[in-house]
Structure formats: structure tokens, C-alpha cells
Write a structure and sequence with these properties.
alpha+beta; six-stranded mixed sheet; disordered C terminus; globular; homodimer; eight-stranded mixed sheet
Chain lengths: 445, 445
């Protein structure tokens, strides 16, 4: 588990003033990594670290900063734009670079003059996904979500018998992962109503899912599982993840092999990966409710029980096209906490590799929808509207059962604790665009 | 649809003698692509074309051969070891290079002396997967398999209502794809017997699945579906694929999101990708059985009905450790034909992208298990042994319900038609190694 060190000192301030503002997402205690290019540029993606409302360009920083030889070597793959290669270096590299960046960016650092020219305003940066994702796995750790959705289909047995014994997961699609800010078109697909034949056309039940994504640091060779004792150190950091879902396509296609076209048309990631180290002050006990089975030994460790959880407030916000046109801000639809996940990130890593499956640096593990226990804490519209039966009312008089064209959904996440600086994730936002016409094959082609 | 041209002439012979042998897998009419390095070498992978028992090294061939400027340009990514970049060039590039290679390798070619030094014996080449696979999707087009497996779980309704309306598919794992020849360890996992609690340990019901895999050529931008009229030209070629499956892990984990750890510990590919052009003489009508629904318009075209199918004989062979020790050859367990798939490759491409999901060059689409209609034509042990209840007898007196350590499973595939040269796929083989001990987390870690 990551230790608290000098980089976590809540009294630390940065010479980048905006990082010191109350409630800033990216204070010097955070230092998340992202990939960007300057607006209007077509050059290869660069790696940056967010600080206040700025990005420290690590390519420029490596050239201009006063780094030790060791740190300059760690910065090399980052200066080359390859976050995956840095991820593969594992936790010691991450901890060492964090200490050096914290030193260089803090008030009074002698690096200030050299690094000031390496800053890019976030407003001038176009962000990409934080790394190259080889394989994307989506889990189902939100027990309140699984229960609520299960009730819609199986009132008597909302949770499958396996749910409390193993982290349910399935493979997602990597090619359609996009960073916050990329709109996507409403998908077409087959759906089935009460009519005898299915139909093909735009999805009418388009939904979001509020998730957290973990990115893998060091991988494992094929055939060599990662034990719980190592699993905690094998994830690099977390992002927010919107697992857009077409409920009508899903209902028709998912038996017996699971969701496919209902999910793989787009998945949105927040652009900044908040490292395991930045999250260290916000760890929480992993406690199973009384009466629930304890994890089998390969999914259990004392450290995991002690602080396998992570206390992250999660929120979904919605700005409809009407709100945008009337210059009204987004409205918050719900709030939950990642602490309530039924399985910890370390357990996901250990389970995923328990059969010998090889995880690789940059691989993405989604948490599944993180709903809270209470009414109104659903992490998807499917839950908030009781399967589309009870529209929710928005502040401006509009209602929603599922998403409408022009809707922008924004996921937000942050860590807050008394005596700690707030650690933010940045927005994970995307706008639903109207469906395109399908290029049907001409007759006789 | 690929046209028959001079490269398909069954009378064509090569100056590489072994290509002309009766029943050779790789005659001059085939010309499949693969990635290899010379045995003992650690240099980057090279691209080669199989001809008889040799590999034409395309890096050497580009340097030494008498190519036109156009062909030399097409050979550039191949000389650099990047089959994906060549795949992205699409069908015109494939057709042009095939014509040039056919000219250069045929009897009497003036390229013989220059290219002879570019040959590597296949016995001296270590093969890799044919390309880099970004995303792997596995479909379920074998209706006889789906019916047989469905019967084990749902005697009354073996096929789900959606089966005949859309190609069922799910996402697989790319990181654990390996080329023929790579052994893999028996996976550990959670299984559930009649005991109240699940267990963790080596799978006891390990199985193979006989599949065909299609590799994507040109991709499509996110949000832009590929119509049936274009879909046939968007796949590069086919490989054999063994979708190893741990049935006991699968039975416990797969509800409600589909197979996960039961599949992702290993998937084996044949090393040579047989191009769509090489398969052109073996196309077959795509005919729906009387009474079955016709495909919806987005999955239909006249060309697909006319010749969307592909006539490929598929076989599973088994060599147990005892057979190997007694120097007995592998025995054939079954035979089926890819022509019987319920959906064509073009339909898989069109369906997969119908929601806007972006396919990328080198992406892999598995066909699902290709079983025949008759008893004894099951493409997995699950089918041949009726769910593990009726062991099959092997020629040497051994029996099998599921695989045992040391078993080598070999998939074979070939096209044969009167008046045509045989087109082979090469072996897709791998050996099951004993389970490793799981590194359980020490108490108190």
C-alpha cells in the first residue's frame, strides 16, 4: 500500500498559483499524468502532469529542468510520449518521480524559472486518453447497481449466486475508448419489441454508466498469476469512465454471451490518471457486510482488509442542449462513493490474473457502475428511472428517461478528507450526437 | 467478392519444388502471410510468404527481387515487419502484390536466382501470430455447436430467440493470443460443485474449440458503419483459432456477463493468414434453411447470398503424451466445414460495425466453434462427450472426457475442389502443460 510521505503534506504549496486555490482539482499533492497536444498542433502526443490550471510538458521539462541523472532517466519515456513504458517501470519509478516533481513544483523551488516555460495552459491543451490501452476489461463491482438492475429482470434473485464469491467481469472494446470531450453518435442496432420480428434503427434507450477505471502498471507474464500481496502495487492509477450503454440493443443481444454492440460504440475516459500515490491519504477499510462470505484466500490479504477501499466521491452531471442554449449550467443527477465497491482494485488484479491471463502496462480495468445504496443514487438512468418507467425531472422543467441528442453527460470524482488537500479527477464529459443514416447495401451489390 | 484471375490457375507451378507436391499446403496458388524470425535469432519479426516448405523472407525479397516501383512500395511495410500497415492498404494492394509474387515464384520466372537466397526453410523459422491484434471479438456462428451446447443447459430451448436474427458475439482477450506451438499452463480458477462454497484450483474440465478467425484489412472510423456492399472487401484473410475453454470455470462465472477467465488464459492462432484472394475458388452460396428468417437488410446482399460462404474442411486432431512417448501419430477426432457457419464473414464485419464500432487493421473476428450437424462432428470435447458424461475412446486405448496434461490439440483446415490446387492453413497446435501453483498471498501481507 502506498505510504504517506512528504509529497502528501497538505501544507505544501506550488509556485503555480492556481494549484493553491481552495478546491483546486490539481494541487501539488495530486500530480496526475495525461497525454496532450497543443491546440492546433498535429505533432505526436506529449505527456504532461496537471498542476492547477496548467500542464507541465514533460518533454520540455526533461530538457530544461534541473534533474538528477536518475530522474532524467525516468523522464526519458515520458519525454518520448510513451506513458505505457513509464507505467511498466512500476511503483518505485512512480514514487521517485513524484518526489522529484513535488520538489520542483513547490513554492521556493530553484526549478521555477526553468520550468515556467514548460507550462501549457490546460485551456490550450487538447487531451487524449492517458495511455495506449491494449485490453479493456469491465467488472461489475457496484453491488447496488447489480442489485437494482438484477431486480428489473429477476425480482426474486437480483444477484446471481456467484456475485459475492468472485468479481464478475467481461472483456470490453479498446478501439472505441475516447478521451473526455469527444462526442459520439447515437448507435444503430437491432432491437426487439413485442412485434414478432426485430427492428434495426437508432437506439431509443441510450444510457450512461458511472465507473472508475484502473490502469495497470507492471504486467505479468502469461501463465503467472499475480498474488494479492503484489496486486496492490500493480495498478498505476485511476480514471473516470463512462460506459455508454444502449439498453434496447443490450436486452436483445446479450444472451448468452454478454453485452457487445450495446457497449462498444464508445467509452469515455477522463484524460488525467490520478496515481495510486496521490490516493494514498484516502484509503478505506474493505469490509464485508455481516453474513456475506469472506473472500477466498487468493482474493484476500490483511492489507486489503485494512485499506483496500478508496474514498472517492463520484458524481453524474447532465447538461441538455436546452440548458446549453439558455446558458444554464449542468445539473447534478446523483452522488456515490467508490468506497462502496464490492471488490477492491487489488482483488480485480489478482482475480483477472489468477488463471494466468497476462495483464500489460496500460490495460484498463473498469469498476462497473458505482451506484449508492439509497434511492436516487443510481449510477445510470436505467436505475434512476426504474427501467425507463419513471422519468426524472430536471431543474429547467425538462424530463429524461434515457438520453436525448445533444445531452452532455459529465462524470466528476474527487477525494476530500479533513486535513487533506482535495484531489480531483477532472471532468469526464461527452455529448451524444444524432444517429447517422446506415449505409444499407444497395440491392444487387 | 474476389475474382478468379491468373494467380488461381491450377496448372501454375513454382520453381520452389516442394510447392508442387500433391497435397502441399502452400502451393503457388496460396501465398499466405506470416511473421517469423530465424530459429535462434532475437531480431525483430519479419514478414514472410509460405511457398511449399519454405518461407519467402519479404525483407530480403524486397532488396533482391526485380520489382516494379509500385510493388517495391507495397513491399515497404512488409519489409519493415509491419503486416498491419499492409493490411490497412486494403484489397487492391493485396491483389497487386499477389499477382507480382505469383509471377516471381512461378516456374521459369527470371526472379528465381535473385529470390532463391531469400528463402528460409519453414523448419528453421519460428512463427509468431500473423499480425498485431488490437481487438479480438469472438462470434458464435456455429449453429450446430450453439444448439448442442444449448441443449445441455436448456433442453427445451437450446437456441436463444436472437440467434437466427443477429450474429451473437462478445469481446475476447488480445494479450493472451499466441501462435501455434506455444504451450500453455492449465488455468486455475473458481469452480462450484454441489458443495455450498466454491473452490479455487486447477480447472478439471479443460476443452478446445475449433474456430476460424478473420483478420480485418481496412478499418472504419468510429461512428461510420461498414455496409454489406463493402464488408466482403474489409477482411484480409483467415486463420485457424483454438479458443481454449475451461468449462468448470465458465459454468460458475459466466452469468450474467458472459465468459471471462474461462477463455482468456490462452487462445492459439495458426501462423499463416490465408488471404481472401487465395480462398476465391472455394466460395459457396449462403443459404438459409427453409423456415429460418432471412437476414435483415443491413446483413443482406445478393453477393453474400450468392457466394458469402467459404468451403473449408476443418479438423481436430489429438496427440496425447502417451502417443508421443510411443511415437504414435495424432488421431483425428472430428471433421466439419466452415461452409455451415450460420453467418458469413461479411455479415460479421457489417454487424460488428453497424453501431459505429471502429474495426482496425489486424483486428480478429473469431467464428465460434464450427461443429457439423452429425453425431461425432462436435468441435469441442463438451459436445463429443455430451457434457463430459460419455468419454470418447482413442485408438491407443486411452479415453478422454476433457483434456489431460501433455495433450497436444492440432486444428487443421484446407480447401479442396475438383480441378483446384489444395489450399492449406498449416497446423494450429498447442500442448496443455500442468497447472502452476498459485502464489497465494502470505497472511499479514
Amino acid at each position: 500500500m502506498s505510504r504517506i510521505d512528504a509529497t502528501h503534506d497538505p501544507a505544501l504549496a506550488s509556485w503555480v498559483d492556481s494549484a493553491n486555490a481552495a478546491g483546486a482539482e490539481f494541487p501539488i499533492q495530486n500530480l496526475p499524468f495525461g497525454r496532450f497536444r497543443r491546440a492546433g498542433s498535429v505533432e505526436p502526443l506529449r505527456i504532461g502532469v496537471a498542476i492547477g490550471d496548467q500542464v507541465l510538458d514533460l518533454r520540455e521539462a526533461r530538457e530544461h529542468g534541473p534533474w538528477s541523472e536518475d530522474i532524467a532517466e525516468l523522464l526519458l519515456p515520458l519525454a518520448q510520449g510513451d506513458l505505457n513504458a513509464f507505467m511498466a517501470r512500476g511503483k518505485p519509478a512512480r514514487v521517485a518521480l513524484r518526489a522529484a516533481l513535488s520538489q520542483a513544483l513547490r513554492d521556493g523551488s530553484n526549478a521555477q524559472s526553468a520550468l515556467t516555460v514548460c507550462l501549457v495552459a490546460q485551456a490550450d491543451a487538447v487531451m487524449s486518453t492517458p495511455c495506449s490501452v491494449g485490453d479493456f476489461t469491465d467488472f461489475y463491482t457496484g453491488i447496488h447497481h447489480a442489485t437494482a438492475v438484477g431486480k428489473l429482470f429477476r425480482p426474486d434473485q437480483p444477484l446471481m449466486p456467484n456475485y459475492k464469491w468472485l468479481p464478475i467481469g467481461y472483456h470490453g472494446r479498446s478501439s472505441s475508448l475516447r478521451a473526455s470531450g469527444h462526442g459520439f453518435v447515437r448507435p444503430l442496432g437491432q432491437t426487439k419489441s413485442d412485434a414478432p420480428e426485430p427492428q434495426f434503427g437508432p437506439s431509443k434507450r441510450l444510457d450512461y454508466e458511472l465507473e472508475v477505471g484502473a490502469l495497470i502498471a507492471e504486467g505479468n507474464p502469461l501463465g503467472e498469476p499475480i498474488a494479492m500481496a503484489q496486486a496492490e502495487d500493480r495498478w498505476f492509477g485511476l480514471v473516470l469512465l463512462n460506459d455508454w450503454s444502449a439498453r434496447d440493443i443490450q436486452a436483445w443481444e446479450y444472451q448468452p454471451l454478454g453485452p457487445f454492440l450495446a457497449k462498444n460504440f464508445a467509452t469515455t475516459l477522463s484524460p488525467w490518471v490520478v496515481t495510486a500515490e496521490a490516493l494514498a491519504p484516502f484509503r478505506a477499510p474493505f469490509v464485508r457486510p455481516a453474513g456475506d462470505p469472506q473472500p477466498l484466500p487468493y482474493l484476500d490479504s490483511a492489507a486489503n482488509r485494512e485499506c483496500g477501499g478508496i474514498d472517492i466521491t463520484l458524481e453524474v452531471w447532465l447538461q441538455t442542449q436546452a440548458m446549453r442554449e439558455q446558458q444554464q449550467p449542468a445539473v447534478r443527477l446523483m452522488q456515490s462513493n467508490f468506497r462502496d465497491a464490492y471488490w477492491t482494485v487489488a482483488q480485480l488484479v489478482a482475480h483477472h490474473s489468477s488463471n494466468g491471463c497476462n495483464l500489460q502496462p496500460g490495460d484498463l480495468l473498469g469498476s462497473g457502475t458505482q451506484s449508492g445504496a439509497a434511492e436516487g443514487q443510481g449510477g445510470s438512468l436505467l436505475e434512476l428511472t426504474k427501467g425507463g418507467k419513471q422519468p426524472i425531472a430536471l431543474a429547467n422543467g425538462e424530463t429524461r428517461t434515457f438520453l436525448e441528442d445533444g445531452d452532455t453527460v459529465i462524470l466528476r470524482g474527487f477525494c476530500e478528507r479533513a486535513g487533506q488537500r482535495r484531489i480531483g479527477f477532472g471532468d469526464c464529459a461527452a455529448t451524444l450526437l444524432p444517429a447517422v443514416t446506415h449505409p444499407l447495401s444497395p440491392v444487387g451489390s
